[in-house]
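Data availability (excerpt). All sequences and predicted token strings are deposited with the supplementary files. A representative entry, Glycosyl hydrolase, is shown inline so that the format can be inspected without opening the archive.
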Amino acid sequence: MTGSAPQRPRFGANYTPTSGWFHHWLDFDLDAVRADLDSVAALGLDHVRVFPLWPLFQPNRTLIRPRAVEQLAALVDAAGERGLDVAVDGLQGHLSSFDFLPSWTRTWHRRNLFTDPDVVDGQAAYLRTLAAALRGRPNFLGMTVGNEINQFSGDPHPDPDRITPGQADAWLRRMLAACEQGAPGRLHLHASYDAAWYLDDHPFTPWHSARIGAATAVHSWVFNGTAQRYGAASTATAQHAAYLVELAKAWADDPARPVWLQEVGAPAPHITAEDAARFTAATVAAVLDCPGLWGVTWWCSHDVDRTLADFPELEYGLGLLTTDRAVKPAGARLAEAVAEARNGWQPPRPRTTAVVVATGDEVAAPKRSVCGPGGAVFEAFMRLTEAGARPTTVLAERAEDRAHLAARGITEVVHPHDVRSL
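Structure token line:
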């Protein structure tokens, strides 16, 4: 991909059905789906990311329900009729505080999700089946292996399937190979929550995110300590998504590797309902100033119906639209940003100042907490931004690699301790 022309960023939403949330697969109503997708398309968005619940689609290791796959295909077709491309998550694992794992991996059948040969064979067959069913549809973007499934691999999950970084690497490559076998040449990737970037010794690493798959996915949630530590109106909170996009580039082998902001939202009470539109505008403006951005996919399309119980409070109001499909202030502001970007988008200039990222080892990154909120790299990036710079990041192992720096347009390298002394 090196040397390819910059592409205009994509704008989309993670599709949360208004009727039954992701449980809608149990009572699939294509007319309701069509109405939801009409309201998404009306915002000017160009894609959705959808979530077939793994236990419902593959309730037994050797049973992938044909009717469920047909319903997924019908959803993809309905989206295409409305000008929307579709990215499909396979092994969600975790959504909005709930775990979704099939019974053949739990309790009496407890087996490691990442290393048990039978489980891995079943997962690969499932991903390959979904991809193959959609391969002929022009609006099918590709598969994401799963939604933040890295959270099952270690703390703070209450019942983790512990693995090593090497085992995580092998599992990811096996899963993505299955996606590629099912639908060659599509945008197949994997997605981790920010423990991969910020949590020391987490088995899914920045290296995995930036080196495996067709693009790097980042999920930006300011309830991770950013908004609490720095404040809702702070530079750090407004720039958190852009920071993750630029942090991802430190580990990429290809300077032109695309980065997909695959999840970002305005969580209450950290971002109040009255402040959501401002936060949306600030976040989008910041990430659009990042070279190599594949796109922005907002979490989420529609609110969660309050008749559904036991969600954390913040999950109910994250939608761009209400459960009645009315546009909320954040949705209106995102629609404005989309229109503005399409009418006047210009490729961002290279970010010429790079903060050095030293995590002890570029592959395992045992000291990656320096990158998280309160860490030296994080704070140096934000201080430079407040001073008017447009920083990026570079690994300590590459900080003197002139060819690498030149390929990324970096002309100045700064260490975090030097920024603190400014």
